[in-house]
Amino acid sequence: MKRERLYFLVKQYRDGNIADEELKELKQYVESENSDELLSAVFVELDEKEALLPPKELGGTELFEKINKVIDDSARRKDNKQVKLLFYMKTAAAVLLMIGGALTIWKISSPLTLPADEVFVGLQESIVPGNNKARVVLEDGREIDLESLPNDTVLRMEGYALVKGKKGEVSYKMDAGTSTKNGRYNTIIVPKGGEYKLNLPDGSEVWMNASSSLKYPLYFGSESREVELQGEAYFNVKRKKVGPKNLPFIVHSGKQKLEVLGTEFNVNTYAHAIRTTLVEGAVRLSFGNAEIKELKPNQQAVFNDRTQELNIRTVRAYYTTSWKDGVFAFDNAELDEVLGSIARWYDVSFDYEKDKPKIRFTGVISRYENIAKLLKAIEMTNSVKFKIKERRIMVQAL
Fold this sequence. Notes:
Elements: H1 3-15, H2 20-30, H3 36-49, H4 61-76, H5 80-93, H6 123-126, E1 131-132, E2 135-137, E3 143-145, E4 153-157, E5 160-164, E6 170-174, E7 185-190, E8 194-199, E9 205-208, E10 212-217, E11 225-230, E12 232-236, E13 241-242, E14 245-246, E15 249-253, E16 256-260, E17 264-268, E18 273-280, E19 283-286, E20 293-295, E21 299-304, E22 310-314, H7 318-321, E23 327-334, H8 335-346, E24 349-352, E25 360-366, H9 371-379, E26 384-389, E27 392-397
Parallel strand pairs: 1-8, 11-15, 24-27
Antiparallel strand pairs: 2-3, 2-7, 4-5, 5-6, 7-10, 8-9, 9-12, 10-11, 12-17, 13-14, 15-16, 16-19, 17-18, 18-21, 19-20, 21-22, 23-25, 26-27
Helix pairs in contact: 1-2, 1-3, 3-5, 4-5
């Protein structure tokens, strides 16, 4: 295959615009024995010429696995020097594999040295990615462990039923004629190393990230729908009316009050700041007696809880919301942000031995990847080294 043709196919695949026949052609080439060298050159050229844009949609896992197998099989047939080159090729390849979402696209310009494997021995068995786990605290204080509750289960309560669906998500079925003014609440709590999808009684969908909780009423009243969030969640709010009146949906997060009618947005309250990112629709933000602000799609409001400052900027929403689709995505993110995301998801802690390295990352990697591969990829920047003891990871600046 000519280089120009391969470049075109790779770019079409990365951007989510590839036709069925083109995808078939790319798969056939990837599976060929002589694909590695030209693939590597095209990945690097694409990385150098074009900004690293987010994929339009996730998918393509089958193609990712085939590409990854081609690279790994080739690496096993070559000596150590060539394996290092192939490891870099895998890093560059993820410009393409953003859709597959299983390898890093963090740009590395310094010489590559692989860390000693013994540093990471046992990590795959002892530290695993997060999964669907959470507990629901009922209005009377009782707790339901959702992880141990079988799928497709209905729990009857007074005036309603809590349902764990076939895919593990939680939803509610309310009894007809029950009062909407009884003031009863449930709270879903997602620990470190967990995530969960919740369908609220009004039909709105909420994806909960690790180390997060949401308090919500069992019965929404006739004036508003109000919930309280700590941590991070992605909301898809269903429009609802009471007579001719639109019923607003309000999210309280610390000192921030967010009001919407029907929209999709992400709220993140980690690290002494409230980050609200609007995907579509419109939201209105208020902070006590402060000025009310309205967001447009692809805008992010960052409210510093310590300084009380509010900044609004334009962002690519994908990098904020990708966690709910099973990937970490970073856009010029500081090391603190990257390690914080890893810590919450893998239920580990990071401690710095001395100064924090000033390094930033742009890229995408699967949230279900072996943590050893993530740490190795970060070490390949030659800026940090990790020392691991059980679930505590020391960060040493180089």
